[in-house]
Amino acid sequence: MSESLPPEPVAEEESAPTKRSRWLYVAIGIIGLFVVILALSLFRANQTQPTSGPAPDFELTLFDGYQGNAGKTPIKLSDLKGKVVVLNFWASWCIPCAQEAADLQATYQKYKDKDVVFLGVDWTDIEGDARNYLSRFGITYANGPDLQTKIGPRYRITGVPETYVIDRDGNVQFTKISPTTVAELSGVLDRLLQR
Amino acid sequence: MMNRTVKAAVFVFWVVASLLLIALTSVALAQNGTPPAPTPAARPPVTADDVNRIAKQMYCPVCENEPLDACRTAACQQWRAQIGQMLSEGQTEQQIKDYFVARYGARVLAQPPAEGTSLWLYVLPIVGLIVGVIIVVWLLRRFRARGAEAPVSATPAKSSGDEYVDRVERDLKNF
Asked: Which residue on chain A is closest to B73 by alpha carbon?
């Protein structure tokens, strides 16, 4: 009668292929994470100025004496729902901005009593130079500095001047990445005011 | 008699001369005799080097990746002029930097402060380094342990023909 041996204890260690496949998953996960981060960065880098859809909200603290028809300072874009907003980014050192300054002021004079609010955002500028610019062109509509450079990046501006027209519901309806004119702005504003 | 007259004349001369000297001295003192009121030490003129010493620690958002002292855009020229103006007003380097950060954000600094979201810039590399060292040490230990195990498993034990003896031999080896 042969003596039967007790069964040999089964090794609790995982088999090599299982371990290897686990590490493979971890490596794939880490690489995948980097790919996702890279893709998001590329996506963000390639994003351009908004041409439609909801306009990014912001708060603008206005220069003393430059409240225009905004009503108060600081003013939030979302406070202006129900009105058409002309948002213009500019700077005193910007030569093309000087080309459109008179046109913007003339358009403001034409529409300031028709539920249209003009907001000038002074981008990366020195306050003294900005005030000289406003006074040189006789600008009276609401203007303020882009404090902490927060508003420009929200609109992903690539320079100045840039002009956006936002409808009564807060959606971007017009984007201009170069100087605008009275005729051009009037056409957009007339269309939006008729709605 | 004559001698007394001469003496008197000499005396009068000296008295008049002394009085005249005192009077002239008084007038001179009255005009500019009082020492000038202390004025603040005149500041040395601000040089381009003074401006650039601060400007090279800053970046203007208009020309990204180019320090303010090297950027030739009109915006950066204005910023440098502002730094010069503030230096001439006696403001310190820190006050000037604080002004620009308050106005344009921490992104204008070449070396952002270690606070808020910028803190990650300082923390992440350290965390990454620590995690990397841990992984490398762990892998090295793992490879070393495998290397030590390899000879045992590489040479299969010869069978004695008896299963029980084989198992004892195996257990002894692994003991």
From this structure: A93
